[in-house]
Amino acid sequence: MKRIRTGFFLAPLMSLLLSLSLAAGAEPVPTALTTPFSASQGPRLLGQSLPEEDDAKLSTPLGSLWKLFVYSWLQTRDAAAGHEPVHEPPYRCEPGARQADDEYCCEPGESVERDQALQRSCGPYFDPQRLGLTAQDWARFGASFWPDNGAGQSVPSWLSQLDALRPETLVPVASLLDALQHVPDSARQAARQALLPNTLRDPGLLAALGSSPRFKTWSWFDAKGERIGGAAGWLADGSAFWFGAPGTSQHALQQHAGWLAQAWRPSGRLYAAADEASQHVQPCVQVQLFARYPLQAIQPTPPDGLLPTSAAPYTLHFVNGQQLSVPGGADNPLRLSHRQGRPELSAQWPLEDYIARVIDREGDARETAAAHALAVVARTWLRQNAEQDLSGCLRVEDSSQAQRVSPRPPSAAARQVAAFTAELVLEGHAPVRYHRDQGAPGVLSWSEAVAAHRSGEGMAEILYTSYPQLVLRGWHQAASCQELPEAMQWLLERQARWRSRLRQVSGFEALQAPIKVCQLERGVPFAEPDRLRIHLREWWSREGRVTLIHEYLHLAFRHHPNGQDEALIERLAQQLVDS
Q: What proportion of the chain, given as a percentage, has pLDDT over 70?
C-alpha cells in the first residue's frame, strides 16, 4: 500500500477518503460497538493486565500491521514445509523503475529479504499477489492458528478475509491483541528477532524500554484527518500490546518512550524473563567453574553428576586454603565430576542466566546504565570467544582470563539487567574487552562506566565511548557478509564432484540454493544453516579449504545427526579436500 504523505491540504481530503474507503468494504467496526482512536485522545497503551475501562471498546486502523500477519503466514508456511521451505524470492528495487513504497524497501538495484522487509515496513514485499497468497490459503491459515475453542470464538472477519488486510481497516484493539496472542510461537519468535532493529534505532527508546518490546510500527489518520501512529507487538514474556498516540509512529514512540516504561514497570513486564518458547531458542552456555582455582574437596560430599536439588549449601574447599559456600537447589544446577582425584564443578545455563551471573560477579546491578553496558559487553565477549560443542552449547571457562561468573543463583537485580538487554551484542571488526578500572580503546572500564551512569549517561553512550567502531545488534540477527566470490565459485564447482561420494553417507542433502561464503575477521569459523552461509578467515591454504569443506558439510547434513558428528565431518573434509 502506498503511504500517503501529510500536507496542509490533506486533512479534509483524508477524512473524506477514509470514510469512502470504509464504506467501500474495508469492514469497519460498527461505531455502536467501538470508538475509533483519535489524535485528541493522547497516548494509549493496551495489553495484558493494562486496558483501562474506557479503552475496552477502542478500535484502531491497521496501518501497516497487516504486514506482520502476512509475515506470520510465511513463517508458518515454511515451518509446515519441514526440510523443504518455499523461500519466496527477495523483492528487488529496480533501477529506473521506482515503484510505490520502494523507498521503504531498498535502494535502486538492491534487494530486500523477508526479515529486513518486515523491519523496514516494505509493503511491496508482502503483497499477496507477489507471494501467490490466495484467499483460500489465508482462510486456512487463520483457522489453523485460531481454532474454534467450542465457546463460539472464531477468527474475526478482519483477519479471515484477505482483502480486509488494508491500512484503513478499523479493528477493535482487543481483537488485534487476541490475534497477536494467537500467532504461532515459531512465527512470533522470528518476528521478534526481525523487529529488534526498531528498538535499537533510537537511543532514547532503547534507554527507556530496553530490548524486551519488539514491535511493528503503524501510522494512519483518524476520522478528522489527523495523523496517528504507534506500534504493536510482544514483550519478552509473550504478552501482546498495542500503543497509539498523535503523530507518526516515530514521533509517538520518541515522545512517549518514558511514558510507556512507566506504564509497564509496575507489572514487572518490562523486565520479565522470556517465555518458554523464547527460552527454547536461547543459546545454552557450559561453564567450567573455578577453572584456574582447583578444588580440594566439597562438603557434604555428593556423588558425581548433577548435584541433588536440596537447598542445603555446599562448602567448597580450594587447594589454596580458601573456602566458599554455595547454595544447592533446583535454581542453581551444578554438576560434579572428578579429574586426577580432584573434584571439578561445571554448569549449563541459558544465555541470559549466565549473563546475570556475570553481572553479579564482575559488576553491580544497582549501577543501572553501567550494568546494562556490561551485560552487552559480556554477551559480546562470549560470542567472540566461546567455543561451540557438539550439542550446540557455547563452552567457556570461569576465570580471570575469560570472564568470571557467580556460582550462586543470580540476584533479582542482575536478572532484570540481563532481561532489559536480552540478546543485545556489539557487532563490528574489533574485539571487546573490559577491566575493573583501566579503560582504553576497545576496553570498557567498569569504574568509568559507573561514573558515566551517575552523570546521567545511558547504556548506548557508555558503549559507544569505549567501542566507537561497533554497533548494537541482536544475537540472532544475521551476521554481515563480505562475500568471497572466488571461494563460492570453488565450492560450487566441487559440489557436483563430491555428490556421488557423499550420497553414501546417511543424511546428505544436495543443496539447491547457492551457498554464500563470507569473510570472517576474527573468531571461530561457523555456518548459518538457515541462511546457507559460511563464515571463515581464509580459504586459499589447504587448511583453509578443509575448514570451508567442513562448514559446507555441516550445511549438507544439517537435518541429520551426522551433521553434529564433528569427527565424521572433519574426516570427510580431509578426504574431499584433495579430490
A: 88
